[in-house]
Structure formats: C-alpha cells, structure tokens
Please model this.
Amino acid sequence: MPSAKSSGKGKVGGKVKNEDTKSTSRSTRAGLQFPVSRIHRMLRRANISKRIGSGAPVYLAAVLEYLSAEILELAGNAARDNKKRRINPRHLQLAIRNDEELSKLLGDVIISEGGVVPYINPALLPAKSKKQSLDSQEV
Model:
C-alpha cells in the first residue's frame, strides 16, 4: 500500500530544490545565445516526428548560431570596406556571394535590395600591350 505522502505513481521523494537556487536556461547551460527551448518547441510543433531528443535543439541552436555569426562577421567586414558602420542587405549579399561555402549553401536565396556582385568579363577589359606586360615581369 502506498504511503500517505506519495501519489502512488512511481518513486517517493526525489531531488530537493533549494529556494535560493536560480533556474538556468538550456541556452546558458550550453553556452549559446540562441534560444534552445524555443527551438525545441518549434521542432515539436513542426510535427517532424513524434519524439524529439533533448540534444537535438541544442545542436540545431549551435549550428544556427555559428552560421549567423559567420555571415554577420563577413557582412561587417564588407560594411567596413565600404566605409559604413551599419550592415545593410547589400553587405549581406556581398558577404554571402564572395564566400564559396556560403554561396553554395544559399545559392537559391534572393536577398531583397542586395544587388549583384560586380563582375567584368576579362575579354571586355582593354588588352595590355606587350611593353607593359614585359615591364611588369621585370623586378
């Protein structure tokens, strides 16, 4: 017969929480800025599968945070090259298209107000004369 304290469902007792201990978020525990709990909730609501492990949202949050940091760093460099302090869609476009791996990942993505990457076909450029090419080779 179960004791008076237990509800009759499983073990009696368990971990005792101190009132002084603050709860830490899963993002903090994982050392991430992206919200692990929100990603977990979105995965559950997306009906990807019936069950989602506890490590899956942490891993996904880490991947998303890494990709975001990589894109923002390259876009910040592009903004600095253009003597701007604020990142705009053009800087994002230049950052993504000039990086081989990001360009492959986001190849089908269209960035609004991003423009195009400047490119001039070498055949359209004026040809160097032989004298200039010989002078440039002498060092």
Remarks:
- The longest helix spans residues 56-81.
- The mean pLDDT is 88.
- Helices lie at 26-30, 36-45, 56-81, 89-98, 100-105, 130-137.
- The chain has six helices and no strands.
